[in-house]
Amino acid sequence: MRSILLMLGLAGFLSVLCSCTKKDCDCTYYNSAGEEVPSYSGIKEEMRVNDCSELNTSDTTGYFICK
Fold this sequence. Notes:
four-stranded antiparallel sheet
């Protein structure tokens, strides 16, 4: 009985830990002229980041802003 409770507690702890590190990030892509490009924009699901702004990128053709 004790080992079953220990396993259930461990499983619960791991599920909470995983749920805290995954989040959905809403990313919008802008071209080099600063216009939004809807076909590249969208929600990135279950990203393992502390803050969505870590996903912000930029290059010569455009950039992503994530919230």
